[in-house]
Design brief:
- One of its GO terms (molecular function) is DNA binding.
- InterPro entries: DDE_dom (IPR032874), IS_Transposase (IPR052183), Transpos_IS6 (IPR047930).
- Residues 71-205 form the DDE domain.
- The chain is of the alpha/beta class.
- It has two domains: 1-65 and 185-226, no CATH class; 72-181, 2-Layer Sandwich (Nucleotidyltransferase, domain 5).
- Helices cover 51% and strands 15% of the residues.
- It is built from eight helices and five strands, in the order H-H-H-E-E-E-H-E-H-E-H-H-H.
- It has helices at residues 11-23, 28-37, 44-64, 110-124, 136-147, 164-176, 186-208, 217-224, and strands at residues 72-82, 85-94, 99-105, 129-132, 156-158.
- Strands 3-2-1-4-5 form a five-stranded mixed β-sheet, sandwiched between helices.
- The chain is globular, with a radius of gyration of 18 Å.
- The N and C termini lie close together (9 Å).
- 32% of the residues are buried.
Length: 227
Amino acid sequence: MNYFKGRHFQQDIIIVAVGYYFRFSLSYRDIVELLRDRGVSVHHTTFMRWVHHYGPIFKALWRQHQTSHTKSWRIDETYINVKGHWTYLYRAIDSNGLTLDFELRKHRDYVAAYHFLKRLLTTNGRPDRLVTDQYRATLKAVKHLMKQDYLSKSAHQCSKYRNNLIEQDHRFIKRHRVRSASFQSIRTASATLSGIEVIHALRKKTRRELSLIGFSAVDELKAMVPA
């Protein structure tokens, strides 16, 4: 599938632009200025549409390219402001810090936790250890999944100390939003965060593999896009 068919700009220009935005804490106008210095004139609203369009696409491609992970997982959620209201980004990583999955939800409740955990377990199988916080809605969702045989009782643990790993991992997402305008809708927030999370996941994987070349968001995105 050609994800760039019919676009006014070439594929390489779009990937470079969105790759920089997802990787660094830059605004739309910052990216437009960088492109202008390289002889490419793009309006910031055009670039904004690229971000909203390609974020979910890169998330889908990243899921197709996911590699093996450990069977010890950490689950937690962090707050994201959308048009003056708090929404909740559910996230899961393994014991090596590699991203397993993520999802933005309007509410922090049983339904949100249940659907996120069910998809995580369905996609990645049963873990040997699943560490969560002690929030009641999350515990209720875990118990329900145990009854449905998605998870064994011995695998679940509530440990603030063990969950420090994912709480520290939230920092990249929070730091990325410092210079950017606040999100205006749950749809655009989810699309943008998808791209940011994918780049963060790819960067962690590269650092884990101790690559001699180093990490390049643009090269990683190009490698995922079908030829």
